[in-house]
Known about the structure:
Blueprint: H1 3-19, H2 27-44, H3 62-71, H4 77-82, H5 87-95, H6 98-116, H7 123-128, H8 134-152, H9 155-160, H10 169-177, H11 180-188, H12 195-208, H13 216-222, H14 236-242, H15 250-261, H16 273-282
Amino acid sequence: xxxxxxxxxxKEEIKRxxxxxxxxxxxxxxxxxxxxxxxxxxxxxxxxxxxxxxxPDHSIDAEGLLKELKAADSSAIAGxxxxxxxxxxxxxxxxxxxxxxxxxxxxxxxxxxxxxxxxLFPKELQARLSRTxxxxxxxxxxxxxxxxxxxxxxxxxxxxxxxPPKPDPYHEALxxxxxxxxxxxxxxEDFEQSELEMVMSELNGLLLKEERLFCPDVEKKxxxxxxxxxxxxxxxxxxxxxxxxxxxxxxARNRLWLQIAFPTQVAKVWDTLPVLYAxxxxxxxxxxxxxxxxxxx
Length: 297
């Protein structure tokens, strides 16, 4: 059983225990009240920052999430995130295959460096490197691979190498400026992470920034009032975001907006096991919970 499904089972067991008390209200009303109290409790105490970061089990529909991100155009809600992803991830979405991706991201990163860090390049080389001269750019791949292999090789391997790359301060400086994902690929001839792991890692980087995950215009589009025919209506995320009495860090706000943008792909933070366990440890008395699905134990 996945952690999220286990969390859902655990929460349902807590609800059943609470609804078995002498509370005269209907079960549905008791459950709704519990959910609200539980979510408010999470923010009433200083929440753990780690709770809001994405974990592998927070992806309910990984295939759906990747499909939506890949198909996004610049005007789509997912497109707003796509523009914030690294060149390495953007090119991976475009190319798919490792060999095509390696060439595309190498060209893109070198061209970006030409625009932002031209001092790395000697003038005569700057004159040869251009966005249209892919042959010259890809020629560098062999040299950079040599540096990558030299970096990971032991002293004996370096001494016996047949054609070691000549020491070149320019190439060494260029190699150090490449992204970790590209340096790993040059060394190992493979992706460092799966596509989903790469997305999760970059989303966490965006969540941690002290800035909005989505611009105000996109946030406005995400609100239920601005989505014709939206059957979901206002959810707990919108309620918490609107409540000025609930203190929220930018990290918490960003996670809530991510849940609103991908309601069926990303798990609710309050459904994760660390939050449920923290709630249980903070409430006395603790009840014995049965998750076996039956039996008298």
